[in-house]
Amino acid sequence: MILIISDTKENTTNEVIKWLVLMDKDFIRVNESEYFEIIMKDDKLALQSDKNYFFLDDIVSVWYRRGGIKFKRLRYNNEAVDLHMNEVQHWLEDYVLNIIESKPHINKQSKVYFNKLLVLEKAKNVGLDIPKYFLSNKINKLLIGKTIVKPLAGNPMLQSITEDKDAMMYTNVVDKLIDNDVFISFFQEKIDKDFEIRIFYLNGICWSTAIFSQNDNQTKVDFRKYNDDKPNRNVPYLIPKEIERKCQKLMKILDLNSGSLDFIKTGNQYFFLEVNPIGQFLAHSDNCNYNLDKIIASNL
Asked: Which range of residues forms the domain containing residue 10?
């Protein structure tokens, strides 16, 4: 049985599942809305929710896409007992998650978030070029027009608590002076690019897409500001073997066997920007005929 951990409305998961159905593979999809109870049956550990039930021993491979396995904890009337049993249940849950992650897998629940600053240091250590960066709580005249600011946190989405919609936090050029101190922010040297490169990585193999975003003012700084009327041109791209080897080395250090790596190319230089352990890849797969959804299904 293949275990898929995802969100309820996650289209990439749906596309991979279509291939698994076509391949006649047995799978269970776990969504973020489920809460599991750890039970024993026939002397074996099992997870049970309102929707799913499966033995840990039956899992042959795991794809962590989004969300995560959540647990339902028993509560006790006695405060001391409840405190003790809460700790016991925590370690049992930890044991179950470790069993799941010990299976052949694509991504892990425990490897969803990375410190961007530490990743840049590791990228530099493996020999990748990175734009100069720094942390600061001041925006002075020296930064104007020459520096970009981007979220330090891994998730660039702002979720509204009053409205049913989200907001994206984009990379932007620092374009005005602010006299007051700001919260400590991540700044990076603005580099004029020839084009951007999105690399999807899986088990040592790189599939690269060149994204020609620089000629559109809407997408020039951040290609995620999609121009639906005139989309950026996306084409297959072959990165140099040296860059590929450094990407493989970085992903091994980060203990990631899948993810998306972003680069910009200017002249003969390739500048590493960041790695996303989850990474959107369907659009790049479709544009370049990579069939990544089928490849993931086959790997599982």
From this structure: 2-111
User: Could you give the number of structural domains in the chain?
Assistant: 3
Would you give the distance in Å from CA 199 to the centre of its chain? 13
Give 2-57 pLDDT, tens digit per residue: 999 998 889 999 999 999 999 999 999 999 889 999 999 999 999 999 999 999 99
Number of H helices, E strands in the chain: 6, 19
Please indicate, yes or no, whether residues 123 and 233 belong to a single structural domain of this protein.
yes
Helix axes 11-22, 292-299, angle to 10 degrees: 60
Q: Which residues does 53 contact at the CB level (< 8 Å), separation at least 6? A: 46, 47
Query: For residues 137 and 126, what is the distance between their CA atoms, to the nearest angstrom?
Result: 29
Which pTM value belongs to this model? 0.87
For 134, other C-beta atoms within 10 Å of its C-beta total: 11
Q: Are residues 23 and 36 in the same domain?
A: yes
Q: How would you classify residue 78: left for phi > 0, otherwise alpha for psi between -120 and 50, otherwise beta?
A: beta
Specify whether 270 is located in the same domain as 159. no
User: C-alpha angle 217/218/221, rounded to 5°?
Assistant: 75
d(CA 109, CA 107): 7
